Amino acid sequence: MSESFDLIELAAGVHGAVSDIAGPAVGNAAIIDTGDKTVVIDSFMTAQAAAELRNEAVRLTGRSAFLLVNTHWHGDHTWGNQVFDDIPIASTRRTLELIIADAPANLVAYEAELDAQLTALRVRLESDDASVRAAAARRVRGVEAYKAAAPGFRLTLPDLLFDDHLVIEGRRRVELMTYGGGHTESDVFAWIPDAGVMIAGDLCWNRIHPRTLDGDPGDWAGILERMARLAPMRVHPGHGEPGGPEVIEALVPYLRTVAGYVTAVRAGTDPAGLAPPPGSEAWASPERMRTGVAGLAARPHPSANRTASGWGRGGDAHLR
Ligand SMILES: [Zn+2]
């Protein structure tokens, strides 16, 4: 089994990889067996974790991966792409642009930044507070893995581009769909209708405060309402454990509250005093909610970084 993630069977032939957010993989991923093709969703933060994922895909399905999908541009879902450089990598056109825009321009500077993080974490390893020491120890393992991966990092871009819908026609049908941008400017999820399974990417976070800084919480809530209408039985999130439709249902009011917080902070409310939205009191990483609200409120126009290409323009593609 893998050191970086756990595998959970979501339905026959569909496995979700669940990662420790502080470990070498960071984001979740998934492996789908269509009966005649093997599809991998997302590639983690490091090549090491991605190689483990690719090996698990062969072990579980008995064949090599046919296609990798990047659900969105964030590095914890795309920086393992180089392990899949011999097969097609699918994403939306806008996600390709955003991966290029975010790529580390200078790997030496990136490694120096990781060294600074390790220095700060080593101070916390000496803390008198056992919970601070434990959190720092978990985090050190991840940052050391990112540092080990940095010298060998090779930017590997999606090369199978679509605007809003790509259907993989195997013995089982897999639909890659986007309803536009919410978590980022362009977010894809995979829908497997015969199994009722949705691989949601970072459109869903289960009992963890989601990153909202690169998206639009109000639009995101609307996207989740549309996803819920597909009536999934199993939802595999981008972070946290898989669950049922309640994973989607819990995030909709949360994101509407966050959107209201952004408006309030623009009007002068101090983000430090914001309470977790109702129902999220026990979720991990509450500071991410306040950082997101503060960052979104500081953006001159909530939609300033959107471009026309970030949104569906029609046109389905089929891959056989
Ligand atoms: Zn993300």
Describe the structure.
This protein is α/β, with parallel strands linked by helices and 320 residues long. The chain has two domains: 241 residues, Metallo-beta-lactamase, Chain A; 46 residues. The chain contains eight helices and 13 strands. It is globular. The chain binds zinc ion (ZN). The site of zinc ion has 6 residues, from loops.
What does this entry show, briefly?
This protein has 320 residues and is an alpha/beta fold. It contains 8 helices and 13 strands. It is 35% helix and 21% strand.
Question: What's the SSE blueprint?
Answer:
Layout: E1 5-11, E2 14-19, E3 29-33, E4 38-41, H1 47-61, E5 67-69, H2 75-78, E6 89-92, H3 93-102, H4 107-124, H5 130-149, E7 160-162, E8 165-169, E9 173-178, E10 188-192, E11 197-205, H6 217-228, E12 234-239, H7 246-266, H8 286-298, E13 317-319
Parallel strand pairs: 4-5, 5-6, 6-7, 8-13, 11-12
Antiparallel strand pairs: 1-2, 2-3, 3-4, 8-9, 9-10, 10-11
Helix pairs in contact: 4-5, 6-7, 7-8
Bound molecules: zinc ion.
Zinc ion (ZN) is lined by residues 72, 74, 183, 202, 211, 238.
Order of helices and strands: EEEEHEHEHHHEEEEEHEHHE
Helix percent band:
25-40%
Shape, per Cα inertia axes: globular
Summarize the biggest pleated sheet. Answer: 7 strands, mixed
Terminal-residue CA separation: 31 Å
The CATH topology name of the largest domain reads: Metallo-beta-lactamase, Chain A
What number of domains? 2
- Note the beta-strand portion: 15-25%
The level-1 CATH class of the largest domain = Alpha Beta
Question: Total helix count?
Answer: 8
Q: Which structural class do the helices and strands define?
A: alpha/beta
Number of strands: 13
Lateral strand order in the biggest sheet: 1-2-3-4-5-6-7
